[in-house]
From TrEMBL:
Residues 159-232 form the Potassium channel domain. GO terms for cellular component: voltage-gated potassium channel complex. PANTHER family: POTASSIUM VOLTAGE-GATED CHANNEL PROTEIN SHAB, VOLTAGE-GATED POTASSIUM CHANNEL. The chain crosses the membrane at residues 39-60, 67-87, 99-122, 151-173, 211-228. It is a multi-pass membrane protein. Its main location: membrane. It comes from the Bacteria. The lineage of its organism: Bacteria, Pseudomonadati, Pseudomonadota, Alphaproteobacteria, Hyphomicrobiales. GO terms for biological process: action potential. One of its GO terms (molecular function) is voltage-gated potassium channel activity. It is found in: Membrane. It comes from Aureimonas phyllosphaerae. This is Voltage-gated potassium channel. Keywords: Ion channel, Ion transport, Membrane, Transmembrane, Transmembrane helix, Transport.
C-alpha cells in the first residue's frame, strides 16, 4: 500500500501575503532607509497640501467645487490612516495615541462636512500631527542642528494655535453687526490679540468674546515666550544620560548636572 502523499502546502498563503504587506508598510512608514525616507517625504508633501486646503477652507467653502476637494482629500487621508493602522506593530497601542485621535476627528469632519461644520476649524490640528513625524526633523538631527528642531516645533505650535483660534472666531463670532465680517478680520483680530497689540478696531462682542480674547492672549504670550527661549537660550546638545535620562547637556559636559553620572558625549565637530 502506498504511503499517503504529504499534504500540499500553499506556497504563498493569504495570511503570509498579508503579513508581508504589513511589514512593507511598516518599512515605508517607519524605516530610515532612503526608499522609506522618500516615501515619507511624499506623504509629508501631501500633508502640506491638505493643511493648505484647511487654511483656505473658510474662503473656498462657498465655491461649487469645495465638496469635491473635501471628499477627495477625505479619501486620501482615509487611505493614509488605514495604511498607518496596518503598519503599526500593535493596533491597540497605535489607537491610544492622541495624534491618532486628532487624525480620526479631522477625517470625520471631511467625511461628514455638514454634520461637523461647526468644528471644522479643528482640521488645522493636522499641522500639529505633521510636526510629530520624524521625517521633518531627521535631516536636522543628522547635521547636529537639534536646536533648530526645537525652534521649528515651536513655530508650528504657534501657527497651529493662530489658525485654530482664527477658525474658532470665524465660526463662533462672524455674523452681521459683530464687527468681524470675514476670515481676514478673524485672522487680523487673532494676530493683534496674540501679540497683545490690541488696536481695538476689531473686538469680540459680549462676555464670551472677552473670555475668548483673554484665552488667546495668555496662550499667545506663552507660545511666543517658548519660541524666544528655543532661539535665544544657550545651546545644549541632546545626549540621554544612562542613569537619569536627562537629555539636554552643555556641549563640554563631563558629568550629568542632574545625577552626576559620567557622560561620554560625542564630539559633533569631529570626523
Amino acid at each position: 500500500m502506498d504511503a499517503a502523499a504529504p499534504p500540499r502546502l500553499d506556497p504563498d498563503p493569504p495570511s503570509g501575503r498579508f503579513q508581508r504587506f504589513r511589514r512593507r508598510l511598516d518599512f515605508l512608514y517607519h524605516a530610515d532607509h532612503p526608499t522609506a525616507v522618500r516615501f515619507q517625504g511624499w506623504i509629508a508633501i501631501v500633508d502640506l497640501v491638505v493643511i493648505a486646503f484647511f487654511v483656505m477652507a473658510p474662503v473656498l467653502e462657498e465655491k461649487r467645487y469645495f465638496l469635491w476637494l473635501d471628499y477627495s482629500l477625505a479619501a486620501l487621508l482615509l487611505l493614509d490612516f488605514s495604511a498607518r493602522a496596518l503598519a503599526a506593530p500593535s493596533l491597540k497601542a497605535w489607537a491610544r495615541r492622541p495624534v491618532i485621535w486628532v487624525d480620526a476627528l479631522i477625517l470625520l469632519t471631511l467625511l461628514l462636512p455638514a454634520m461637523f461644520f461647526n468644528v471644522g476649524f479643528l482640521r488645522i490640528l493636522r499641522l500639529w500631527t505633521l510636526s510629530r513625524k520624524d521625517v521633518l526633523w531627521r535631516p536636522l538631527r543628522r547635521r547636529g542642528w537639534q536646536k533648530w528642531e526645537e525652534a521649528g516645533r515651536a513655530v508650528i505650535n504657534l501657527l497651529t494655535c493662530l489658525f485654530l483660534a482664527t477658525g474658532f472666531i470665524y465660526t463662533a463670532f462672524v455674523r452681521e453687526g459683530s464687527g468681524i465680517e470675514g476670515y481676514i478680520d478673524a485672522l487680523y483680530f487673532t494676530v493683534a490679540t496674540m501679540t497683545t497689540t490690541g488696536f481695538g478696531d476689531v473686538t469680540l462682542p459680549g462676555p464670551a468674546g472677552k473670555l475668548t480674547s483673554v484665552v488667546i492672549m495668555i496662550v499667545g504670550i506663552s507660545l511666543f515666550v517658548r519660541l524666544a527661549q528655543t532661539v535665544f537660550r544657550p545651546y545644549k546638545v541632546f545626549f540621554r544620560c544612562p542613569a537619569c535620562a536627562l537629555e539636554r547637556h552643555e556641549p563640554d559636559a563631563v558629568h550629568c548636572k542632574a545625577c552626576g553620572h559620567i557622560l561620554a558625549i560625542p564630539d559633533a565637530g569631529g570626523d
